[in-house]
Amino acid sequence: HMVLSRFLERTKLQQFEMEEDEDIMDAPDVAMLCAIAQHDEALLALRAIGGLHALSLVAAEGEITALEALQKACSGDATVLLEGDTYISMRGLVSSDEHGAAYREHSPTWRKLESLAFELLGDLCSGSVKGRKAVASADTCLICVARAMRLISSHQNKNGASKENTPDETDDEMDEEVDVSEKFPEAEPHPDDLALAAAAAGFLSALSSAAIVRDTVCRDGDFLEALSQSAISSPSDELQFGTLKLLVSTAPYVSAEGPLFADALAEVLVSALSSDKKYKSSSTFNANRVHQAAASGLLVVFDSLSTDTQKKTAACLAKHFSKSVKS
User: How many other C-beta atoms lie within 10 A of the C-beta of residue 122?
Assistant: First the structure.
């Protein structure tokens, strides 16, 4: 209690303004706070006296142990983030430019911080109506959404986008261009970047029932195209499942006037369901959930499909069911 009281007092006096070359963990009371929070019993005691909010303030400064402690505290109930508006610091990690975009993009620590922040916000939104409303009504909500969309799109642009002729370029001019892709092949995406994009997709999926978020996602044709491609093929199983789940979450709201109408969505889901890709299960990923998500999305939009698409969808579902029974 003494450590927390000292920390909160210094916060009120604004004595935690950090220089660029300073580390917040150099402050002994902050280091002690994060160390204490690593123990389950101490974490419960910290929560009882408002310590989670204090941890969120430290996490917002880029201290990953503080955020990991918050994740542990939320493992059973993410609504604890609503206590003392702790979740506000989570939003700041993915919406604030205070620390510089370039530093965030290239720092492994910041990738991990953003991933954890997206996961915690996603858990809060999916586990509580109150939590979802709190995040969706925040003035930084659309900034967080834009950040998540940019992270997801960036990987599809690197792996699936192709350059098309511009109005000022002729076919002859395109033929004269030197293809350097063989000399300088693109590097494989970093696993941490893929994990961050997957966490961003999970966040958007959990928040998709909020009209302001759903409209932002469904009205962006370029993003939906990237999302559809990633849901069919992605360098990461977790990212593919995340984008597929996000598409499925839009299924109840799909209309013929939108850029992603029912038949187009069904085509993506059928492709994902009928793919021969072998998914690898892990402690955090169940391969069966990919097919489960695709099938559930098809059931949602089935009645809105054209007759031909309904026939193709039924055939795909029957084939997958037969294959599942035999395996």
Answer: 23
Provide the residue-wise pLDDT of the chain in tens; the chain has 327 residues: 555 555 555 544 344 454 554 555 566 667 777 777 777 777 777 777 777 887 888 887 777 888 888 888 888 788 888 887 788 888 878 875 544 444 455 577 788 888 999 999 999 998 889 999 999 998 889 999 999 999 999 876 554 443 344 444 444 444 444 443 444 344 566 777 889 999 999 999 999 989 888 889 888 889 988 999 998 888 888 888 999 999 998 888 765 444 457 888 899 999 988 887 887 777 677 778 888 889 999 988 888 888 898 899 999 989 888 877 776
Q: Which residues touch 58 (CB under 8 Å, ≥6 apart)? A: 24, 30, 33, 34, 66
**Which amino acid makes up residue 77?**
D
Query: Is this model's pTM higher than 0.90 or not?
Result: no
Distance, in Å, from the CA atom of 238 to the CA atom of 287, rounded to the nearest integer, reads 9
Distance CA 90, CA 59 (A): 8
Kindly give the residue spans of alpha helices, DSSP state H, lying in the chain: 2-12, 28-36, 40-48, 51-59, 64-73, 87-95, 101-106, 108-127, 129-136, 141-159, 171-176, 191-207, 211-218, 221-232, 237-250, 262-274, 288-301, 307-326
Tokens of 8: 């909160």
Residue 114 C-alpha from the chain's centroid: 9
Task: Give the list of residues 6+ apart from residue 89 with CB closer than 8 angstroms, or none.
Answer: 56, 57, 59, 60
The position carrying tokens 């994990």 is: 195
